[in-house]
Amino acid sequence: MGLPAMRPLLLAGGKSTRMGTPKHLLRMPDGTPLYQRQLQLLRNIFPEPQTIFISLAQESETDEFLGELLSQAATTADQSPGTEDGNTAPAPAPPMIQVLRDHHPQNVDAKSSPTGGQGPAAGLLAAYRYDAWAYWVVLACDYPLVPAEAFYHLSVKRDAVPVTCFRTAQGNCEPLLAIWAPPALSRLAERVGRGHPQPEETARELDGLMIDAPPGCEWWLTNVKTTEEWVKAMEEMKLGPGGTGEIAAPEGRA
């Protein structure tokens, strides 16, 4: 039996309530939408032909590029497997970027959730529904400064544990910058079904491995939730050569 697949997932379906505008569509200093910067970062880690997955809510706002992805997905789904002469058509090549719509279990107790929804858990469960046997390498749009090196660090430290994630200097778990194994996603689905959609609680319940950023690299975990935090992060950012999504440490940091 082969090793389980490692699949990259960008979580971009958040409501961005505190931000006041769709976070994934925020513009980087060079004008690139944040979600495209994150997709490029994942592409640096998972070269073609590996598919990059991006989760969106049904109500997520889109730009032209995301609209094209959704249109292509709908066209592929509507295509018949047969051909005019009755022969079976060859399977289409997997897309380089594939949209997953957030998945909300039917038995969720919405009253147990302050917002009546599942937040980022819905994106994680969409991935689990797509491939329940894969290890999902998860990145949210909350982390605009994180470099590819952070994921290599996660991968090297990863052990036979359900969740491997970073830990902030305050001791908080960062489950949306993590590697989720099938047992962890299964447990998350169970908890969401009972009205407990917080991924951090699932990671802690399963004694997930929490690792610290290397000394001087705490900026990897910069998490933006408000406009003020976004402006501050953009002031610190320095895009790497060619706008590849790689960044150097902000001035004054190692």
TrEMBL record:
Residues 74-96 are annotated as: Disordered. Residues 9-191 form the MobA-like NTP transferase domain. Residues 74-86 have a biased composition (Polar residues). The keyword Magnesium applies. GO terms for molecular function: GTP binding; metal ion binding; nucleotidyltransferase activity. The keyword ATP-binding does not apply. This is Molybdenum cofactor biosynthesis protein C. It comes from Colletotrichum orchidophilum.
